[in-house]
UniProtKB/TrEMBL annotation, chains A, B:
Residues 22-41 bind DNA. This is TetR family transcriptional regulator. Signal peptide: none annotated. It comes from Streptomyces roseolilacinus. The lineage of its organism: Bacteria, Bacillati, Actinomycetota, Actinomycetes, Kitasatosporales. One of its GO terms (molecular function) is DNA-binding transcription factor activity.
Length: 195, 195
């Protein structure tokens, strides 16, 4: 039933746009009760966000053997979701809704953002364990440097974003995370040699 | 008259909010004709953007003697503008308007974004001349890494942003720009020694 609700939501966002979307339409076309939808999602915005961008869970972070590789795998997964037509439809409307709806914003922060930041915490922990980073870095800052920047490129600055741009963002984010770790934990003036 | 129009626009955005703002209100309260406003600004959105965030011109980029210093000066100026109450009011609404209004988006790209990117081009040029960067970097990418990220923190992710966060973003952006220059122009495996 989850799958049917989310699939129907994506279809309707592409057909009628996010502003015109209603939970009633989704319930009717998916053949489920509204109560079933509201048991799963607190609001239309949350249902739409899960259907388009978030996929309920952040992607499991795969150990690729390097900080750059781990960030690239994550960025490619998110780019595929965030650049899809339904996500592009939803994002600007969701951004303005979050700005004026503190309840939705709190839910967004506590649920989705926290889960994404937890994935960055795992990636950072592995990089510290490998000796790639001089110490830990705030996962919220790392998240901002990569996925925040990607969201800005797609939804605020409306730049064309292809895999080369995603790779540039990953290279820059990995260097930024490394520099912050070095500043906070490193021996000043003695950057670690790459092994 | 420019100053009066922009000041009145800021006041009205704070009083009634951006969605309810009209060019008529601004004309009446500022004591100017609507034609005078439309000679200066193509739309309500543009007038509001100039009044809150852009200040007509990007800040002159000051040569502070280092890439980090130049970026920090720029980021602090933009942070002060972008975090002001009227700018926070406007931004989410402007983001959704840009997504559905290609004329406004083109104007935004060609005027404001291009001017900001030109400032980054100057900063990068100076850093290359100083020997801080191995070669030039796409100014649009540098702009995205610093101001795109800041916009995302303020308007998309709705994070608290103080001067420490701005400084972290600058440190990360400087490292990211340096890494991209090194990747594209540097001698592989031989990072430049800090002088």
């Amino acid at each position: 039933m989850d799958h049917r609700i989310l699939q129907t939501t994506r279809e309707l966002i592409e057909e009628v746009g996010y502003p015109a979307l209603t939970v009633d339409q989704v319930a009717t076309r998916a053949g489920v009760g509204k109560a079933a939808i509201y048991r799963r999602y607190a609001s239309k915005a949350e249902m739409a966000f899960v259907a388009t961008m978030h996929d309920r869970q952040p992607p499991p972070s795969v150990d690729t053997g390097s900080l750059h590789g781990d960030l690239l795998a994550l960025a490619r997964t998110f780019h595929a979701r965030m650049a899809a037509p339904a996500a592009r439809q939803l994002a600007p409307a969701l951004i303005s809704e979050l700005a004026v709806n503190p309840v939705l914003d709190a839910r967004f922060q506590d649920t989705f953002l926290a889960a994404e930041q937890a994935t960055f915490a795992e990636i950072i922990e592995r990089a510290v364990a490998r000796g790639e980073l001089a110490g830990t870095v705030d996962p919220a800052m790392a998240h901002l440097l990569l996925l925040g920047c990607l969201a800005s490129a797609l939804y605020v600055l409306c730049l064309p974003v292809d895999d080369a741009v995603v790779t540039d963002l990953v290279t820059a984010a990995a260097a930024g995370i490394t520099a912050l770790a070095e500043r906070d934990h490193g021996v000043s003036g003695a950057p670690a040699e790459p092994s």
